[in-house]
């Protein structure tokens, strides 16, 4: 009985140690999971095993982080996080900024945003922050104007001289709608997944001074843990900046390149 008890204690201690040295992070595939996979060797040298779990939506990784199934997630910007916490009553916090992905307008029918004709259909993400961001872009292109509200939707249109029609879809579905609509305003992670480079393939792109910086998110109270600090430090390194510059050719911009 004593041997069994000692063995059980040893296995429990071993499991606890493994969990302490394992960092489980949820991420959308491109570019977030790719960037995380790049830093695996860096974290391994520090004694951490990085486990990357891929998600194809923006809801589940936040819920999994809030329930502590994940140590962190990496896919979103601050406006989205704030809106999610407000609606879902989650307690998630920003642990550190990493990069910005410029959102852009794509089209298979037009080569210039100024050529868009009356009655054109525009596909936009349907979550509140990304929809408002997309509508800001189309407004900056001079096609429509909106009321001055924090989160815009098509009902807030003030002027729409071309009578544009807006099709609201889940963010992951917007690239797949490109063949069916005149314009599609796509988040860069999903654009890259569809082999679209916002710097080269779009007909209009948002400013590089956009406030929508992508961040590492953790459960409130974990932002200063050793695991979180190691993860954020690795992602904010110059090695990651160089990796992003070389791999994404300006479609993803590391925070160190913005200084």
From TrEMBL:
Where, per UniProt, does this protein localize?
Answer: Membrane
Q: Report the Gene3D superfamilies cross-referenced here.
A: Periplasmic binding protein-like II (3.40.190.10)
Q: Which domain of life is it from?
A: Bacteria
Assigned keywords, A-Z: Lipoprotein, Membrane, Palmitate, Signal
What GO CC terms are in its UniProt record?
Answer: membrane
Q: Name one Pfam family in it.
A: Lipoprotein_9
- Report how it sits in the membrane: Lipid-anchor
Write the signal peptide boundaries. Answer: 1-18
Family stated for the protein in its record:
Belongs to the NlpA lipoprotein family.
The identity of this protein, by name, is DL-methionine ABC transporter MetINQ, substrate-binding protein
Q: What is the organism lineage in this UniProt record?
A: Bacteria, Pseudomonadati, Campylobacterota, Epsilonproteobacteria, Campylobacterales
């Amino acid at each position: 009985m004593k041997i069994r008890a000692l063995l059980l204690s040893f296995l429990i201690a071993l499991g606890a140690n493994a969990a302490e040295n394992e960092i489980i992070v949820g991420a959308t595939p491109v570019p977030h999971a790719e960037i995380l996979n790049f830093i695996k060797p860096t974290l391994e040298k520090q004694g951490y095993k990085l486990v990357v779990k891929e998600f194809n939506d923006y809801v589940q990784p936040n819920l999994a982080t809030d329930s502590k199934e994940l140590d962190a997630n990496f896919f979103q910007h601050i406006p989205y996080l704030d809106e999610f916490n407000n609606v879902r009553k989650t307690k998630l916090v920003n642990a550190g900024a990493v990069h910005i992905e410029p959102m852009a307008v794509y089209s298979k029918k037009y080569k210039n945003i100024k050529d868009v004709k009356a009655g054109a259909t525009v596909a936009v993400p349907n979550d509140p922050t990304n929809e408002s961001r997309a509508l800001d872009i189309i407004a900056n292109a001079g096609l429509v104007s909106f009321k001055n509200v924090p989160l815009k939707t098509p009902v807030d249109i003030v002027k729409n001289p071309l009578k544009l029609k807006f099709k609201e879809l889940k963010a992951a579905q917007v690239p797949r709608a490109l063949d069916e609509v005149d314009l599609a305003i796509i988040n860069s992670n999903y654009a890259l997944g569809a082999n679209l480079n916002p710097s080269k393939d779009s007909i209009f792109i948002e400013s590089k001074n956009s406030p929508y910086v992508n961040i590492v998110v953790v459960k409130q109270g974990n932002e200063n843990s050793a695991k979180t600090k190691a993860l954020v430090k690795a992602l904010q390194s110059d090695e990651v900046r160089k990796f992003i510059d070389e791999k994404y050719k300006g479609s993803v911009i590391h925070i160190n390149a913005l200084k």
